[in-house]
Amino acid sequence: MKIPADTYPAPVAGTAVHDGQTRRAIVQLLLESGSITAAEIGRRLGISAAGVRRHLDALIDAGDAQANAAAAWQQAGRGRPAKRYRLTAAGRAKLEHTYDDLASAAIRQLREIGGEEAVRTFARRRIDAILAGVTGVNDEPGDVESTAERVADAMTKAGYAATTTRVRGPVQGIQICQHHCPVSHVAEEFPELCEAEKQAMSEILGTHVQRLATIANGDCACTTHVPITPVETD
Known about the structure:
This protein is an alpha+beta fold.
């Protein structure tokens, strides 16, 4: 598996871009080896042990790697057993981009077997599961704003980092902003995922909603505008 360049970017301005490349190479070795010493990493990458440890310390501080004492069978030669390093669950989670490929392949197969309707049904059932605990304005009378906040809370729990913002002016309303999308790469190919989200929000909020931006289309957030005054949906 190749580590994407934006997963472990180069450190802040003032340090060499090469640092980011080296760190990605170290992460790649940790991923492939499972458990490896700093000396082994240095030999394979052609850098000093001190340089390797600097990157390993940064990965450990970020919670992406951990050091463990070597087992007896792993010790070569005499002296104090060298520490062996490996990725943590958090570090591995940053690398699970292959799941995007798997999800896309699975949905393509679903489309081949069941057609476009099968994809739309899958997309709708997925968002319905995420919003299952959210009561809509038709089920529990209340204002649109509080319902939008419940939608945002449910989306946040599903990994979307969603917030709500009150918009004043000529076009008043609430904007639900999803600052992260765990399925954005898949949604680039299958916009049915975005459309199902919009439809589900509209039904829960009891009003039409408008998508202003999506991460799948290259925007910095998925933004959905919700009018303050509910109107009948189609």
